[in-house]
Specification:
- It is built from twelve helices and eight strands.
- By secondary structure, the chain is mainly alpha-helical.
- The chain has one domain.
- α2 crosses α5.
- The protein starts with a strand and ends with a strand.
């Protein structure tokens, strides 16, 4: 494969696949099959008793669209050349459908993360585990509007037709796909912000990790941090930052390292592969951490509050902080994290 900058794609990249049509179809089929299995796996292993959110609904919608694309590819791959409702379908439509989905996925990163971030910022202090029907309807409507708007932009903007027709300049055996610059910039932003936060409080994080010990808590293995902060006059937000980083990286550190490798290698991943459920849950945890840090004084320490993230337990970050929202702990500075 090779990446070529697309002149009319608003920062998109062509990714050429120089294979015979049968090889292209088989490759796309296998990739989508693996992606669908990965989506389903993540939706199955996540915690079930979590508060509903916009990102949760969007992840489900993405998994459904991936499954629909997979079924379409399988149908065309099996029948090879057929007509449906007066439209003739061949294996070249496998490439066409994948191109359209790549373009649609590629322009949705910014709006999805913006809406998800606003959702957490506005609702992070709510304690109700089961939102009203109106809130659920609002999430479903927001997801539908984003997908419809993305599809409309791709199918109705004239310049997109020029981009799709650009493949005619290449060999007919090539299938130009697209990489999203939105995802690329978001990856850089997450890596840079995480690295800056680590550099700002690396001493406290190192001390906390060195004080960790494995204990048994409620018949489960746990980590106990016997670290007591000496900066009693430090702002609560800066005391909270090391804990947020430990919780976030304790779950997603391999994913962060993988992002760093991809960024420094300059790898261009097709947009239909890049937007997937694991990636969305990774960004979801990052947005929750930012919302907790921005509104830390509004967080109410209830059991329902800790069911926000399906993969990261943020309870460690706030217990047993002795601020206006917490009760005094038996041993200040002692934190237990269930593994």
């Amino acid at each position: 494969m090779a990446a070529i900058l697309c002149e009319n794609c608003s920062g998109q990249y062509y990714i050429q696949a120089n294979h015979q049509p049968l090889e292209i179809s088989g490759m796309l089929l296998l990739i989508m099959l693996g992606k669908v299995f990965l989506d389903v796996f993540m939706l199955q292993v996540k915690q079930k008793n979590v508060k509903v959110s916009f990102m949760g609904y969007f992840c489900v919608s993405l998994a459904l669209l991936d499954f629909t694309l997979l079924m379409s590819i399988c149908f065309i791959f099996y029948f090879e050349d057929f007509a449906l409702c007066g439209v003739r379908f061949t294996k070249y439509h496998i490439c066409l459908f994948t191109q359209v989905m790549s373009l649609t996925y590629g322009i949705l990163h910014y709006p999805v993360y913006l809406v998800a971030g606003l959702d957490y910022y506005l609702t992070i202090g709510q304690t109700s585990q089961f939102p009203k029907r109106g809130q659920r309807l609002l999430y479903v409507s927001a997801v539908a509007v984003i997908w419809i708007s993305g599809g409309f932009c791709i199918l109705k903007v004239p310049v997109v037709y020029e981009d799709l027709e650009a493949q005619n300049r290449f060999s007919p055996y090539w299938c130009p796909l697209y990489a999203s610059m939105q995802s690329y910039s978001v990856s850089w932003a997450v890596v840079l912000l995480t690295g800056t936060a680590l550099a700002a409080c690396w001493k406290e994080i190192t001390t906390m990790l060195l004080s960790a010990s494995v204990v048994s808590f409620a018949s489960q293995p746990a980590l106990m941090f016997s670290y007591v902060s000496n900066n009693n006059g430090t702002c609560f937000k800066w005391q909270l930052l090391p804990r947020l980083l430990i919780c976030f990286l304790g779950t997603w550190a391999p994913f962060v390292v993988f992002q760093i490798i991809l960024l420094f290698l300059g790898a261009q991943i097709p947009a239909y592969m890049e937007m997937n459920v694991p990636w969305l849950y990774f960004i979801n945890s990052f947005l929750i951490a930012v919302a907790y840090w921005c509104r830390c004084h509004d967080v109410e320490l209830t059991e329902e509050m800790w069911s926000t993230d399906p993969f990261v337990s943020w309870k460690f970050c706030f217990m047993p902080f002795n601020n206006e929202n917490t009760e005094p702990a038996d041993k200040p500075g002692t934190v237990i994290v269930i593994c």
